[in-house]
Specification:
DNA-binding; 155 residues; elongated; mainly alpha; Tscrpt_reg_Rrf2 (chains A, B); TR_Rrf2-type_CS (chains A, B); Rrf2 family transcriptional regulator (chains A, B); 2 strands; homodimer; Arc Repressor Mutant, subunit A; 7 helices; WH_DNA-bd_sf (chains A, B); two-stranded antiparallel ribbon
Chain lengths: 155, 155
DNA sequence: GACTCTCGGACAAAAGTTATCCGAATTGAG
DNA sequence: CTCAATTCGGATAACTTTTGTCCGAGAGTC
């Protein structure tokens, strides 16, 4: 899985706490990552409709919906794509004993098992929203630190 | 996920049906894949203790246990390694508002969510054995074709 | 003793990931 | 209206992982 997913999730958490648009450069500085590369991840989030960018002097990124309506899976699929980790190369249709393609109407058992596992993985991630992450963060970190973060974002 | 996983699973299915050791070259020809590269995957399976190689003229690979005692996850972890797809880079310990390392005794919420999804994925794959795959294959393919496969392996 | 086979590492090519930079377009403030 | 700040998108390069090949050493069988 792409490392950009982690950045994207952190950005969404931060964005849900900020009341105003946050420039990409600020998000990069906050997380101490390359701002050029983070920009690319944010563009992916924007293309997926999870965030919106406003141009101009006071521009930046904002979530398009409530944090409780954005799942972790949404972010992952926006950045990494929705394609499953396993892709069947139809080994059974190759080699000296290849079964003809017209017989392969159903996916091979291996692909089926992998697809089921992939569904379980996605289902687990679909059940968690950005709001859940935020709740977890604000529960485990002291309020004073959260205030400092908000102040830093405004500055 | 590495493409070699698919080959490894197919090989285990074939091996469970063959009564005698099958050389790596034969497995490669059967699946029409590079024999040098497949050899590497088989070595990984061997190192993990799933298959055993016998040397000499009638040598080849054999499963070390019953197909019902080898899970799909066993094969995946043997070839791809047991490391989870997501690895937390501890973003919270970086940047101007970094939380000190001594405060990070518990994993960050994002890592926790990812780990839970990873467990769900692995649990799903741990529940399926090579024997299940074999049963599925022998149920969906005509007996005549299975006999041809067995005959080809012996030759 | 000759043959067959596996083992393991070294090595090369291809693909994907990570990262950088620059110009164009857009918006808000003076 | 003009200027400064900002995002957007593409082109590009460095790096890492994956994929694939090759060959010699060692071990077993006939």
């Amino acid at each position: 899985m792409s490392g950009g997913v982690e950045w994207g999730l952190h950005c969404c958490v931060v964005l849900s706490g900020a009341g105003a648009p946050v420039p990409a450069a600020k998000l990069a500085e906050l997380h101490d990552v390359s701002q050029s590369y983070l920009a690319k991840q944010l563009q992916l989030l924007s293309r997926a409709g999870l965030v919106r960018s406003s141009l101009g002097q006071a521009g930046g990124y904002v979530l398009t919906r409530s944090a409780s309506e954005i799942t972790v899976l949404d972010v992952i699929e926006a950045i990494d794509g929705a394609q499953p980790a396993f892709r069947c190369t139809e080994v059974r249709q190759r080699g000296p004993l290849a079964t003809p393609a017209e017989r392969c109407d159903t996916p091979c058992p291996i692909a089926r098992v992998m697809a089921a596992a992939d569904r379980a993985w996605r289902e687990s991630l679909r059940g968690i929203t950005i709001a859940d992450l935020v709740a977890d963060v604000s529960r485990t970190t002291p309020a004073e630190q959260l205030d400092r973060a908000r102040a830093w974002l405004r500055a």
